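thread: overnight batch results

M.L. [08:02]
morning all. the overnight job finished for the chain we discussed friday. pasting input first so we're all looking at the same thing
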Amino acid sequence: MTAQDTVPESEVTQAFVQQARELLKNGYLPKIKRCLESLTDEQVWWRANPESNSIGNLLLHLSGNARQWIVSGLGGEVDQRERQHEFDERSTIPRAELLSALEQTLNDVDRILAGFEPERILDHRKIQGNKVTPLEAIFHVTEHFSMHTGQIILLTKLLTATDLRFYDFEAGAPVERWRSGPSGGS
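M.L. [08:03]
and the structure it wrote out:
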């Protein structure tokens, strides 16, 4: 590759931020919605044992984490997170309310990321008491969402004993089906 072939850093940053936005709103969120459609409010708050988290706790945690790291950490809004409360909650908050809060958080995250200035990607911020860059914050929230989405999917499959049908393999190659209603394969 020659110097003439290199991609400007701002374009790389824009692509990175755009991919994070896409994964959060159009990858993980629709999968979480599919899970919640399959569950009752009581199942959302089921836990395998006292040390485990329920799906409800994970949803509160995802909202809190994304809001703290992106909305507050990068967007400058006041950080009002009470992290331990996300795990201590034991009341049955309806799944529709949990989903609405998560969607609002992701709308706020998307708004912050849509306006993100690429030249700020390596600036330093203090988030959760640590000195981090926006690159680290965006990567953290994206991978954190991925991990907990996987846990929500596993718990949903355990609770419902059903295939969530995220993909259709009929054509020989996987076709995404999580952005629409239940159809397709595993």
